[in-house]
Design brief:
The chain is an alpha/beta fold. The chain is built from five helices and six strands, in the order αβαββαβαβαβ. The protein has a six-stranded parallel β-sheet with strand order 3-2-1-4-5-6, sandwiched between helices. Helix 4 runs parallel beside helix 5. 40% of the residues are buried. The site of pyrazine-2-carboxylic acid (VGL) has 9 residues, from helix 4. Pyrazine-2-carboxylic acid binds at residues 33, 75, 83, 91, 153-154, 157-158, 183.
């Protein structure tokens, strides 16, 4: 690959370049927060969040067919989590551990044995990264994962922070742009998050 193409690929892969991201040993699919509370009807619903389900299911099938692992993170808060408005935080209550809203959507068929990692489980600490105070890095290491394909919710919070931490931990990262959607507290947050992930070294891949 020439330097010019490498530079371009760091910004955004086009259809013609997707051959460069053929699945190989060391790849893992990381699903982020496909939980009812982030989907339509949920307490912190992400606009058009349901649109990621079908393309993510296709990625799941590809990983399963290749014998490669799928790992999922879930937001898993105590009832008095500091991010909730009653505690002075910015969000309505969501993803309270053990409640229906915290369950992974049944619209997504997770492969049997999918490792599910809980995050933001302590009342007094927000954790937008799946790597923050969790067993995610250890799980991925145990599975031999070196390159992460990432999709889920929400682009501008937990996808962004998880991807930035993954890059700091020296994973290669491919953000599946059709498989993420933003909360957009401020218009443009989603695009800014994608730009920040690319600037930090993530590739982005449509489809
Ligand atoms: C998230 C807001 C609050 C996320 C989690 O998963 O992006 N956003 N908690
Ligand atoms: Zn949360």
């Amino acid at each position: 690959m020439g330097a010019g193409l490498a530079t371009h690929a760091a910004e955004c892969l086009t259809v013609a370049e997707t051959a460069e991201v053929r699945l190989r040993p060391g790849d893992g699919l990381l699903l982020i927060h496909l939980q009812y509370d982030f989907l339509p009807g949920g307490s912190l619903a992400v606009a058009a969040g349901e649109e990621v389900i079908a393309p993510l299911q296709r990625w799941i099938e590809r990983f399963v067919a290749a014998g490669l692992p799928v790992v999922a993170t879930r937001d898993w808060h105590p009832p008095d989590h500091c991010s909730f408005r009653a505690q002075g935080g910015p969000w309505p209550p969501h993803c309270i551990a053990g409640t229906p809203g915290a369950q992974y959507t049944a619209a997504l068929q997770l492969p049997p044995g999918t490792a599910i990692v809980s995050q933001a489980t302590q009342s007094d600490a927000e954790a937008y990264s799946g790597f923050d105070d969790s067993e995610l890095h250890q799980r991925l290491q145990d599975l031999g994962v070196r390159r992460l394909f990432v999709g889920g919710l929400a682009t501008d919070y937990c996808v962004l922070n998880t991807v930035l931490d993954a890059l700091k931990l020296a994973y290669r990262v491919v953000v599946l742009t059709d498989c993420v959607r933003p909360v957009e507290v401020h218009p443009g947050d989603g695009e800014r998050a994608l730009a920040a992930m690319r600037a930090a070294g993530a590739l982005s891949l449509a489809g």
